[in-house]
Design goal:
Elements lengths: L1 H7 L2 H4 L4 E10 L2 E11 L4 E6 L5 H9 L6 E6 L2 E3 L4 H7 L1 E4 L11 H5 L6 E2 L2 E2 L1 H14 L16 H12 L6 E5 L7 H16 L3 E5 L3 H7 L2 E6 L2 E7 L5 H9 L5 H14 L1 H12 L11 H17 L12 H16 L39 H5 L1
Helix pairs in contact: 7-8, 11-12, 13-14
């Protein structure tokens, strides 16, 4: 049974982490910068450390590099607890850090910057030939294209300077390389060169901690993403199975945003019957019925409106009584019944009870073609007069 497990488990997942942080906390006076932060980095793995401004990324990097030792927690190196209280202790372990400002000297050439502080000396004299040979070999191994190793750093592009700074960190044969915003302020082509270099570091079996705000770069080269929020862990994600929106949601703490609401709504409609009924109830509710002709008085009124429309060619509906398709059909039927029945017999209201909404007695209705002609549906006393 153990043989089967070893055959199905990847080496990166089963190997002991080269660097492991357990419960790291750091305080600056009254400000708690880090609280119980955990992080693991294995050989041949790129771990992206992401978070908003003030999340604690730089503080955590300085803790690993020995610039600002942690107040609480344990740092493990290859499974053993170690103390990293100064930069030289981190370098002796095999931790190399490339900061965002690169720390290069513009007046020195590439060879001078690569061996700055690590010069090769023979008989009290700098061995320029050996340093140049090793510089060319290192740049060639990393596939870094530099016009000449003897040109000043000031004449190189931003991407070329970044690659020189990364190459300098590899002179001490480190096992962990920390890159702080390596693609910041770089163009498209220069960013591609730096990302290619990060992939080559992984191929060489080095563990890489990549700090970046660019999600496209993170998705391109990282294997896992560790999210910090307000000095605490807010999740560790596998890049291959996690969407960019989920990572951004963990960074900002926005669990209730447009993306999550849309996903929850889609899941509710497709998988929850109650949600289907709730959402479809409002859509299936019938609209309020339109006004209908129900009484004899309304039929007479509709017939009169249809007759006026034929004579004048234009009819404006009374205020508050919209005419729709149902009214038009019933008006046409009422018109036919009115023509077949003599006026004054069918549909005449009772004497002495004028209909609501009819014009006042003695005042002709606007739009009538003949002023003195009695109106259909008038009370009997006016018709008899």
């Amino acid at each position: 049974m153990p043989e089967t497990q070893s055959a199905t488990t990847s080496p990166a997942a089963s190997a002991t982490p080269v660097l492991a942080l357990r419960g790291i906390s750091k305080r600056f006076g009254a400000v708690q910068a880090l609280t119980d932060v955990d992080l693991e980095v294995r050989a041949g793995e790129v771990v992206a450390l992401v978070g908003d401004n003030g999340a604690g990324k730089s503080t955590l990097v300085k803790t690993i590099a020995g610039v600002g030792p942690a107040d609480d927690g344990v740092v493990e190196w290859e499974g053993k607890p170690v103390t990293v209280d100064r930069p030289h202790a981190a370098q002796e372990l095999g931790i190399a850090t490339v900061y965002q400002d690169l720390a290069l000297c513009d007046n020195l050439d590439v060879v001078g910057n690569l061996f700055l502080g690590r010069e090769i000396v023979r008989a009290g004299v700098l061995d320029e030939v050996e340093m140049e040979r090793r510089a060319r070999e290192l740049l060639s191994t990393l596939s870094i294209r530099i016009p000449s190793v003897r040109i000043p750093i000031a004449s190189l592009s931003g991407g070329q300077r970044q690659t020189v700074a990364i190459a300098r960190s590899l002179l001490g044969e480190p096992k962990i390389v920390i890159l702080d915003e390596p693609t910041a302020a770089l163009g498209v082509e220069q960013t591609a060169q730096v990302l290619d270099l990060v992939e080559r570091l992984r191929e060489r079996g080095l563990g890489v901690i990549l700090i970046s705000h660019n999600m496209a770069d993170v998705k391109a080269v990282a294997d896992r993403v560790a999210v910090l929020r307000l000095g605490r862990n807010n999740g560790t994600f596998d890049v291959r199975s996690t969407s960019q929106e989920e990572i951004i949601s963990a960074i900002t703490g926005a669990t209730d945003n447009a993306v999550t609401r849309r996903r929850d709504r889609s899941a509710g409609v497709s998988g929850v019957p109650g949600a289907v009924e709730a959402t479809g109830a409002a859509e299936a509710a019938p609209a309020a019925p339109a006004a209908q002709v129900t009484g004899p008085a309304d039929a007479v009124k509709a017939a009169q409106a249809a007759q006026d429309g034929k004579e004048a060619g234009k009819e404006s509906a009374p205020a508050g009584e919209p005419v729709d398709a149902v009214d038009a059909v019933e008006a046409a039927e009422a018109d036919e019944s009115a023509e077949a029945t003599p006026a004054g017999k069918a549909g005449k209201p009772e004497v002495g009870k004028p209909e609501v909404g009819k014009p006042e007695v003695g005042k002709p209705e606007v739009g009538k073609p003949e002023v003195g002609k009695p109106e259909v549906g008038k009370p009997e006393k006016e018709a008899g007069a």
